[in-house]
Structure prediction request, 482 residues.
Amino acid sequence: MNQVPLQADVVVIGSGSAGLVAALTAAEGGAKVIVFEKERSPGGTSNFFEGTFAVESAMQREKYITYSRDEAFKNIMEFSHWLANPRLVRAIVNESGATIGWLQQQGVVFTEATINMPDSPLTYHVVKGKGEAVVKALMTKAKEKGVIVRLASPVKKIVKQGDRIAGVIAEADGEDIVVRAGAVIIASGGYANNAEWIKKYTGFDLNVNLVPVGNVDKMGDGIRMAWELGAAEAGKSLLEFYRVGPIAPEFAMAGEIEWAVVQPDLWVDPKGVRFCDEAVAFFDSSVGNVAAKYKEGYTYSIFNDAAVQRMLTRGIDKNVVIGVPPGSKPGDFYRNINTALDRGTSEIFAAETVEELAGKMGVDPAVLKATVDEYNAFCDKRHDDLFAKDPKYLYAIRSPKYYAVKARTVFLGTMGGIKINEKTEVVDKKDAVIPGLYATGFDAGGMYGDTYSIKGASGLSSAFAMNSGRLAGKNALKFIGK
Prediction:
């Protein structure tokens, strides 16, 4: 194992995509860089993303995709009601196309520029091997450039001398060490696993009515250390919400049950009342937001055998992941759902009547029956008088067998905490820069307004991580004079 020097130009806290991109960018400019990662393996949540947002990339130009940086900027800002930091948004959007090319130079392979929403710009750059391949490529290149990556080595404090950052105190091999550095880049991944902060800042009870997906030991370390130095707060209460199928222990892999859950059929709240136009299924932010209104932590997807047969014959309408596009046909749905029912699951219910289904769900049978009857009437006349759902997704639910599956409210990460400017420099409560301190990815606020931006920007969380990492690496180089 490499010995940690007592002196570095740049210290990076965290080895996710934001931290590794920042570290490699700084190392390419000639900086001596150390990355501290508190987990025993690198990457964290970044190992799981499928693709990333970008505009005006070479891949898009080759496909005659004309969606521009100007259009992307305007759409993101309008989606956020101009609550996002416009200079930061512009910087990330402008950097995004070049970052795809830079990642390709590091060995990352992108298979296509596509989208996972109807009638939307093709901005989603799909990664071969998912985020895990990105982490592996960046780790390889970073080490080739002399970056020292210390795993199982948490940073405990950022050191400041006068008004400038002076380094960090980290724990390595069970001992505290002081590493002097001219710049520190925070990329610790937010606070998704900090139950106290989740309750304090969002009102949810972690793992009770809100479940983190793909996050491990994200306690807000970087955010806390920045706040201790006087950093201002931004976006600390924002979560990247989503709605998924069964997540009880017996559903480590929900498989094709999830396909049915996410289709735009009939969705009801914990009392059995319809609560949205289910065609929001195609737009992740809206899906998450409508689900998050219910503090029980779940809603239900209601469907019947006719809906299953529709999936089997014509395929699904809404994709689950990029590898399962619309039109895909489930092959093992009945086997999966019957196995779950045989095991006595409390996540899935089946019945011969709507009233019987309601009883198993624990809702008032009269309420659920009224909901289904009203919905079926809308389907019969091909107009949704309540939520104006597109008629092509109006299918009556009138014959057995009837199914209800709990769709849990989950989140993919926290989306802020530390206030930064367009250079990713951390600023204090008077908007003055804290010299030498930078924040990226899920630790940094300002990229979003009051919700995760999706309009023309699918894959923005991974894009914000990597592009803020690029900006932090570049600006740290300038700061230290490299």
Summary: The CA atoms of residues 285 and 452 lie 6 Å apart. The chain is about 35% helix and 20% strand.
